[in-house]
Amino acid sequence: MSNVIKINDFDAKELDVYARLSEGQLLNRHEPEKGIFIAESPIVVERALDAGCEPISILVEDRHIKNQAKNIIERCGNIPIFTAPFDVLTGITGFKLTRGMLCAMHRPKLKTVEEICKDKRRVAVLENIMNPTNVGAIFRSAAALNIDAVLLTHGCSNPLYRRAIRVSMGTVFQIPWTFIDEKEGTGIELLHNMGFKTAAMALTDNSVSIDDKNVKSEEKLAIILGTEGEGLHQNTINSSDYTIKIPMSHGVDSLNVAAASAVAFWELGK
């Protein structure tokens, strides 16, 4: 394959996207239409391709060129395929590649909240969840447990950060998602206008259990989750139709937000 390029120079400019650019630089906030993300591992790259994401280049361990990377390379056309032995790639990226592959891709244009939520029954709303590991884990639970879409406030970590993609196992490409316009806050009024009832996950005197029959019977429901520690804004709680909680035992007051999302999605996504 003429587009396979063996790496000899760690400082080659073509490798900046994998080795030296920060997540903020990849995101390119000033020109988001030029933003890039990195998909890691064959299964994640395949899910990104299936979602219509456009590849730019691939960085792959040389021994995988003719086996587990073969089909992906064929799908990607004539883009550059950078390759080197395992120890060389580890030195470039600073960590062991998951199954020996990274793929740089163009960030897709985000849809509006209305487009994302059209004909949806259950959506998750993430308010200022800044840890990419939690964001990725929530997406994985959403995909597995019947959540139709995910909305994020601008205080959240971007779902296309490398770690979020990796933790989600590529489900960020399977679940429709977008960011809520900053002037809409958590988007509760917008959701109400689309016919959704909103359920804020918070520990208050008025919280009901997530298995409350009224909550579960809602035709269209948005489940709102907040960041670790601080939780949801009080305005979000006050504006929601329900405040819900997961019953705890042994004196435990709460779960990690990713774990809590899985429990809530299982109960309310049925």
TrEMBL record:
GO terms for molecular function: RNA binding; RNA methyltransferase activity. Keywords: Methyltransferase, Transferase. It comes from the Bacteria. The keyword Membrane does not apply. Pfam families: SpoU_methylase. The keyword Transferase applies. It comes from Eubacterium ventriosum. InterPro entries: Alpha/beta_knot_MTases (IPR029028), Ribosomal_eL30-like_sf (IPR029064), rRNA_Methyltransferase (IPR051259), SpoU_MeTrfase (IPR001537), tRNA_m1G_MTases_N (IPR029026). Residues 123-265 form the tRNA/rRNA methyltransferase SpoU type domain. Transmembrane segments: none annotated. This is RNA methyltransferase. GO terms for biological process: methylation; RNA processing.
